[in-house]
Amino acid sequence: MSDTESIIAGARSDRKANMADIIDRLFSDFFEMHGDQVAGDDPAIIAGLAKLGGHPVALVATQKGNTLEERMATHFGSPEPTGYRKALRVMETAEKLNFPIITLINTPGAYPGADAEASGQGQMIAQNIRQMLKLKVPILTLIVGEAGSGGALALACSDEIWMFENSMYSILSPEGFASIMWKDAHLADKAADLMRLTPEWLLEQHAIHRIIPEDMLADGSLQTAMTTTLERLSQQSVEQRLTRRAAFFRKF
Amino acid sequence: MSFSEQLGEHVKRFSSRSVSMLKHYQAKVPNGIWMVCPHCGASFYFKRAGQYKVCPECGYGFRVTAHRRLRMLTHHFDEWDAGLETADPTEFPDYERKIKKAQSTTHLKDGVLTGKAQIGSQTAALGIMDPLFIMGSLGTANGERITRLFEKATSQHLAVILLTASGGARMQEGIYSLMQMAKISQAVNDHSDAGLAFISVIMDPTTGGVTASFASQADITLAEPKALLGFTGKRVIEQTINKQLPADFQSVENGYKRGFIDEIVSREALPGRLEQLLGILTAKKWGGD
Questions:
Q1: What share of chain A is helix, strand, coil (3-state, %, to 5)?
Q2: Spatial contact of A110 and A67, defined as CB atoms under 8 Å apart
Q3: What ipTM was predicted for this assembly?
Q4: Please, what CATH class does the domain formed by B64-282 belong to?
Q5: Under 8 Å CB-to-CB from A37, ≥6 apart: which residues?
Q6: What is the mean pLDDT of residues B40-68?
Q7: In this model, does residue A72 exceed pLDDT 70?
Q8: Taking the model in full, what pTM does it have?
């Protein structure tokens, strides 16, 4: 297996499929909020309030699920417009309460279904990107597994973007990329090498801030790293944070 | 050869197969004598498409270069940032050749034309994406040019009019292409926070990351008749749900019904409509001196 192949295998590993487990390990007193208060409750987005190191945070995470049934319901972790709307309303609540936001991402992309399309998938992602860039509270993103396309970016317009060492962040899934470039989804391996979706390359390009070794989840040091970073971000003025967040994306 | 044999040959030559071949070649040559509308399939003498290049049967606006589309809107235009070119950030194979070809087709360095335009009696910052530049895909160079369009409009207190046409992200630029969506959205936010208006005009096709960012962030969203507006490609949706979708699934006419679009405006009527809107936007505010 090439480096890229092993990263993709690691990113898609079943161990990472259940975000609820990861949330349990990192946070306490998690209260899950349901529904977008308009049109439904998308199980592909888990969102709510919790504590990290004794302080309040808001969480927004994508969810794949463990069983086939769960994965069908979440479309393998691909949110629909109602999921993005739920994410946005929880993030707006966080802003009002002055809680920092943590987003945890493991999605191949927004769900490419007919109803999702007709109910404004692209339009909703566009709104999320805009609003995230404006949120006055600190935002920390951790890419846990896959992070594909606008469906991931809609949860990653943040102050800090971290990636697990075995995770990927790309314009599209390698299968989708191969299908567009060569009309053949089976050329995904060839696509993956060209796509430069590895944490190392992305860090070199300053498209992310930090690579997280995965044992930091098990030994508790990830919690400490998150706490330290949120503490530091919280000490900056709103203007400082928003200027830095804008500058991060402006350089591309 | 008898007369009836000759007639037989003649009919054979114009059999349905050769007619379909003929149509096939005509479709590839939009500037030929005959044009075929990719939307309704009507074929017609090219002059009937007129100066606005629209299908005389259904009103579909043919994909034209940004320079050509500009001439349908105004003749008073100061171009901005014409020299911006991609640095090929992921060193993608064969990309340079593709860029060169697109540049010679469109007479642009990358897939958008931007500047300050006069439309009737009004002035605005104007951007026109070029669907013939690698499908109008969003990369670093046209992304930067659109960002600067909003930034310059903000500092010069101008409304932005942006005509979108894009197949979505520029695959050859990977994550750099994705980052354009956030970069431009930030410039849209700053322009919006300055109290300035943004009018987007959806052209055929507007899809993917462009739909999922600035094309959907305007205060007023207009569209050209029969243009395609969507996020996911129709083929991908059909494979996902394992069902055929109606041909007009992602038409702006359907988008209008779903509430994504304020008004569908013909190419001919667009300059007048924009002038009217800009007139409202720049009218003297209430309670001023």
A1: 50, 20, 30
A2: no
A3: 0.96
A4: alpha beta
A5: A85, A89
A6: 95
A7: yes
A8: 0.92
Buried b (16+ CB within 10 A) or exposed e, B75-96: eebeebbeebebeebbebeebe
Reference A99, options A134, A48, A143; nearest CA is A48
Place of tokens 């988008």: B255
Q: B255 pLDDT exceeds 80?
A: yes
A41: DSSP letter: -
List residues of A whose CB lies inside 8 A of any B CB.
110-114, 116-123, 125-127, 129-130, 133-134, 149-150, 153-154, 157, 169-172, 176-177, 179-181, 194-197, 202, 205, 207, 246, 249-250, 252
Map out the domains of chain B as residue ranges. Answer: 1-62, 64-282
User: Which among A119, A130, A177 has the least Cβ separation from residue B185?
Assistant: A130
CB B226 within 8 A of CB B252: yes
Provide the token pair at B111.
């897939």
Query: Mean pLDDT over residues A50-72, rounded?
Result: 96
Task: Domains for chain A: give ranges and CATH numbers.
Answer: 3-245 (3.90.226.10)
Q: pLDDT by residue (tens digit) across B18-29?
A: 556 555 555 555
> Which of these, A31, A160, A26, A45, lies nearest to A97 by C-alpha position?
A31
Q: What is the mean pLDDT of residues A144-161?
A: 97
How many Cα atoms sit within 13 Å of A119 on the Cβ side? 17
Q: What whole-number distance in Å separates Cα of residue B162 and Cα of residue A225?
A: 43
Which of B225, B204, B227, B201 shows the shortest CA–CA distance to B215?
A: B201
- pLDDT greater than 70 at residue B2: no
B110 is in an annotated binding site: no
Highest mean pLDDT of the ranges A9-13, B138-142, B280-284: B138-142
Average pLDDT (A188-204) is: 93
B131 labeled binding residue:
no
Which DSSP category does B45 fall into? E
User: How far is it, in rounded angstroms, from Cα B98 to Cα B117?
Assistant: 30
